[in-house]
Amino acid sequence: MMTRLYFDRDSKRGISGTYNWLVDEVKELGDALNATNKEELEEEFADVIAWLASLANVTGVDLEAAAIAKYNHKCPKCGRSPCKCSL
Amino acid sequence: MMTRLYFDRDSKRGISGTYNWLVDEVKELGDALNATNKEELEEEFADVIAWLASLANVTGVDLEAAAIAKYNHKCPKCGRSPCKCSL
Question: Residue A46 to residues A3, A22, A83: CA-CA distances in angstroms?
Fold first, then answer.
């Protein structure tokens, strides 16, 4: 969906510009963690995952496949589910 | 899946600690954008979405529902698909 909606704009903006937007959205999410408005918090989560998907698209990475490859129903560090690593 | 794997650890670490981890992973993703190793880049994307999911879990946000609520097959700003906003 993000490819269809935004790939043209994302590819024109490029990798660095898209990464910088992602960083800004992560900061906004951090600010929203202290907000009392749940809807605002949900919107900031939506923005971060959207910009992460945009960045994956412009770098040619399949975000879902990458996530499943590393976190495939077990912790990649300890190999357990649930994870038993120390905090 | 992230709830099953990590919710116990994530909830013990708390919202601020989990957010700080997310920020660190976003920095590592930024470094990996300059790497030539595609597999390393994919792993960093996996880590960012994993920590974003962890943060969503400890704040009680459904990440997928939040994303779909805002980006529901059209740009939330211009209402078009593909997006026609200016860059």
Answer: 15, 12, 26
